[in-house]
Write a structure and sequence with these properties.
single chain, alpha/beta
Length: 234
């Protein structure tokens, strides 16, 4: 489904991503783990079209994305849940969700997907007319996820969905990620909570200073001594 080959991304003279290659197959949950500054968010932004690579290829279902504007990439079936949620704080819950479907014309499909989002996130349904800026952190994260789902993506990129949430909410968010995947959406997950991310991932990659240093199944990396020492507290 998604294939990244020899990807290089720079900020001016700084090489943030140094020739990484990986793939995400249809139906998988794949996670990228790594410390702050490893290049995880930069990788997602390059895939989404928010950053233009210096070199390399990003292919979704056989189509090269590197020269394509971000809005076209969304219409190709790729959506991103950004780090920090980035909800439209002055808009209501329902308006935020409707904005996620901005490129769609199928009114019946949009209504059906709205119902599905409210089923996944019952708390959002209770707050349909509430402005997004007044929601709790966990509710804003749910809204950001729901907004991305309104694009009806084939593949969903998620950037640190558990950041700043209580342990109870983290468990709920990861349960919902599994539910979204079970409904047929492929997921590429960037997450600092390596333990939770590896527990739900089919496959995983470790990103360190712009390079992939380890790869394997989620359980293989969870059992790897190097990963345990660096990311799982021993």
């Amino acid at each position: 489904m998604l294939k990244i080959d020899n990807l290089h991304v720079s900020y001016g003279m700084i090489d943030a991503i140094k020739g990484i290659s990986f793939e995400v197959n249809d139906g998988e949950i794949v996670t990228l783990i790594g410390s702050n500054g490893a290049g995880k968010t930069t990788t997602l932004h390059a895939i989404s079209g928010l950053l233009k690579p210096k070199e390399g290829s990003i292919v979704l279902d056989g189509v090269e994305l590197t020269k394509m504007p971000a809005n076209r990439i969304v219409s190709m079936g790729l959506a991103q849940v950004p780090e920090g949620r980035r909800v439209f704080s002055q808009q209501t819950v329902q308006e935020n969700l409707q904005l996620g479907a901005y490129h769609r014309k199928d009114k019946e499909g949009i209504e059906k997907d709205l119902d599905n989002v409210y089923e996944l996130f019952p708390r959002l349904k209770e707050r349909i007319k509430q402005t997004a800026g007044t929601l709790s952190g966990g509710e804003q994260q749910m809204l950001a996820m729901g907004r991305a789902l309104m694009a009806r993506p084939k593949i969903l990129l998620m950037d640190e969905p558990s950041m700043g949430l209580s342990p109870l909410l983290v468990k709920e968010i990861f349960r919902i990620i599994k539910d979204i995947n079970a409904q047929g959406t492929t997921i590429l997950l960037v997450e600092q909570n390596a333990r939770m991310a590896l527990a739900i991932a089919n496959r995983a990659y470790v990103l360190e200073i712009g390079k992939i240093t380890l790869e394997g199944t989620g359980s293989e990396l969870a059992d790897d001594e190097r990963v345990r020492k660096a990311y799982l507290g021993g």
